[in-house]
Amino acid sequence: MASRPETPLLDRVSTPADLKRFSDSELARLAHELRAETIAAVSETGGHLGAGLGVVELTVALHAVFDTPRDKLIWDVSHQSYPHKILTGRRDRIRTIRQKDGLSGFTKRSESPYDPFGAAHSSTSISAALGFAVARDLGGAPDTGAGDAIAVIGDGAMSAGMAYEAMNNAGHLKKRLFVILNDNEMSIAPPTGAMSSYLMRLYSEAPFHTLKDAAKGAVSLLPEPFQQGAKRAKEMIKGMAVGGTLFEALGFSYLGPIDGHDLDQLLPVLRTVHQRATGPVLIHVLTKKGKGYAPAETASDKGHATAKFDVVTGQQKKAPSNAPSYTKVFGETLTALASDDPRICAVTAAMPDGTGLNLFAERYPSRCFDVGIAEQHGVTFAAGLAAGGMRPFCAIYSTFLQRGYDQVVHDVAIQRLPVRFAVDRAGLVGADGATHAGSYDIAYLSNLPGFTVMAAADEAELKHMVATAAAHDDGPIAFRYPRGEGEGVEMPERGEVLEIGRGRMIREGKRVAILSFGTRLGEVRKACETLEARGISPTVADARFAKPLDRDLILRLAAEHEALITIEEGAVGGFGSHVAQLLAEEGVFDSGLRFRSMVLPDVFIDQASPADMYAVAGLDAEKIEAKVLSVLGVESIGKRA
Ligand SMILES: Cc1ncc(C[n+]2csc(CCOP(=O)(O)OP(=O)(O)O)c2C)c(N)n1
Ligand SMILES: CC(=O)[C@@H](O)[C@H](O)COP(=O)(O)O
Ligand SMILES: [Mg+2]
């Protein structure tokens, strides 16, 4: 008689408390099922795969040992949190991840009590965990009592200054706090930098401390083990590197390295430190990004992010496109320009492929610098390069440049240094949602004296703007462009150097002028087609520059039309605000011009397709048409007889 198939353990987990009832061998089986479920779910949705697969055992062990949500488990970046979401009551919605109205691809406080701190930008976890630890000790959560704070941070995220600022503070405060360093020797691309080499030395030489050393440092916080598996822990800890590490110098007890895929190592170590730690402890865990799924393990990015895929073959299902991506146009144009100009160099903060600088690095490795996840340093390093006579292009996503803003102001703008900022992922980016939206750069760059700020309306324009930036030695200059494919326009052989502060006319019309800054121009064109059918023919211009503004163009549009509408893929305070300021200063409003500025609304827009997000934002063709009709006092389509 055939034996009855066992009920999957995962089906018996509705909250992490259920893990407490499992034996260690059942936890190992659960990890196996959790990995399979993660792969199956991401194959249907796409998303971040490799990082989550690398922490499956760690996720199980942490939830088995600690008492979430009372204990605060904080995932750095949190792109690895899919297995955590599955175990914390969100399995039934995991196939909605990164979609409209679905689960976020990152941890999010409003989504679950098991997500005590939201993330998506890296290297914030230790600071946040320390905040929780201090709040606990100050009695900040009297109803839930004194929970632990645990930060799980990757080796890539550990390259950022913020992580060290936090450890410096934690070592000083000496609060009980756990940092799990999840070291998989990968960032999005292979990690760079001396810190990465240091971590590698810690385990390539392990065990480099003798039993005598083990009597000191971290092991001193461990008692004679008396619980399940602790004998093994003691044996293991004898072989670990303790004392003498950088982390110890910062005031942490250091334990490691341990195999992060072996629950027989993870569970006893976590149980022991959970039992006995009194101050900050760093546990160095070695894992493999993409673990347990061959197509991810063997991919160059270790399955960091993927489209939907076939589980059996690993083949990704991507929609074909003829238009080159903006990122590629940037990378190729810069690489071509660099062949004539040995002063052109490039800086990326751990995103060589995402920014297209991988193309540049292949051709000019000595002029391309991956500084790690270190946007602040990257900006000031570029400022130094510029001051030293080079022509640096600092290629950073709009959302990540936020982290280097003081450096943009203090090191670049005030000194009028000609750093060229390639601001990729401008505007709404889609599945990564609000944390990754490039909503603010127009505002935060255009308000800086002496800055030149451009936005490309299409990929040919981007090519011109890269050339313009290369030729621009008179102070800092930025050009922004969105994620994804271009408009499919014909590409010029070479980028042409644009006149600074000059826009271009797209079409001459009557009564209303639309002045577009960036890639909303495509939607403006669509709106015009529908408006033409109603007998309304707007004038359309592409501003190209938010700073300096094309005063002549703007004042002419204002003088020759009843109404002027600006549109941009950015928050209030950007292009439209600068145009309004100019019009006000020139007294144009006094003569009755009707002015409207279409910007992102004052809310954080959740993930969806970029088109859906722009619809929510009210910046699509339909809303442009409605805006034109309303400013002209014409009834909108919905009200047509
Ligand atoms: C401030 C910031 N810069 C860049 C990124 C883009 N980014 C997301 S994950 C990642 C790599 C993280 O590597 P690691 O911490 O080692 O985690 P792993 O993916 O290897 O698990 C990068 C560069 C980011 N999220 N935040
Ligand atoms: C987690 C993270 O910050 C990155 O992986 C990000 O999702 C990359 O975005 P792109 O896909 O736009 O490069
Ligand atoms: Mg890593």
TrEMBL record:
InterPro entries: Dxylulose-5-P_synthase, THDP-binding, Transketo_C/PFOR_II, Transketolase-like_Pyr-bd, Transketolase_BS, Transketolase_C. The keyword Magnesium applies. Mg(2+) binds at D155, N184. Keywords: Isoprene biosynthesis, Magnesium, Metal-binding, Thiamine biosynthesis, Thiamine pyrophosphate, Transferase. Binds 1 thiamine pyrophosphate per subunit. Binds 1 Mg(2+) ion per subunit. Thiamine diphosphate binds at H79, A120, H121, S122, G156, A157, N184, Y293, E375. One of its GO terms (molecular function) is 1-deoxy-D-xylulose-5-phosphate synthase activity. The keyword Transferase applies. Its cofactor is thiamine diphosphate; Mg(2+). NCBIfam families: dxs, PRK05444.2-2. This is 1-deoxy-D-xylulose-5-phosphate synthase. The gene is dxs.
